[in-house]
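Q: Protein N-terminal glutamine amidohydrolase, please. Structure only.
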Amino acid sequence: DPSDASVTTLPYKPPSPPWDTCVYNSCYCEENIWKLCEYIKSHDQYPLKECYAAFIFNERKMIPIWKQQARPGDGPVIWEI
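A: Structure for Protein N-terminal glutamine amidohydrolase:
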């Protein structure tokens, strides 16, 4: 009977460091991703084969990103890659 099964659920722990300890460069998103990957690799919390970094761009090499500190109002920031 599945209701009799004992299940232990571990709390989710994000692979990234706490926000206030992150290494951050305001104009170099690639550097930020590199540092995040470096952190994940050095802390052995998750197998690297389960972690991915994706760079998203299009033919114009421009992408809109919302929720950026540099955004105008509620609109997106257009980044040129």
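A: Brief note, in case it's useful. Residues 23-80 form one domain.
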